[in-house]
Sequence to fold (97 residues):
Amino acid sequence: MPDDHEINYNSYKELPPSPIATGSSLVFKTGGWRTMRPIIDLEKCKKCGICWKYCPDVSIIIVEDLPKVDLDYCKGCGICANECPFDAIVMVEEESI
Fold:
């Protein structure tokens, strides 16, 4: 890849069109069965993007330089909370919200 080519996408929705498998999670919202959900404390967040980088479901999106959870696709795995070096993300039971 040439050095002058920069990829700066904040969400999978901004990616250019590419072949995808029919019936992927882009078609089916997969977050409805989670038991835990992440809550981001924006006061503690340092905008490092580690949560975005490690989310296996690409359900952390960046909006105006801040992370936001797309609950339609978040499965509640907690990887974002585990990887956050600033303890800005906690997992809470789905029913407690």
Observations:
- Strands lie at 36-40, 60-63, 66-69, 89-93.
- Residues 40-97 form a domain with the Alpha-Beta Plaits fold (CATH 3.30.70.20).
- The longest strand covers residues 36-40.
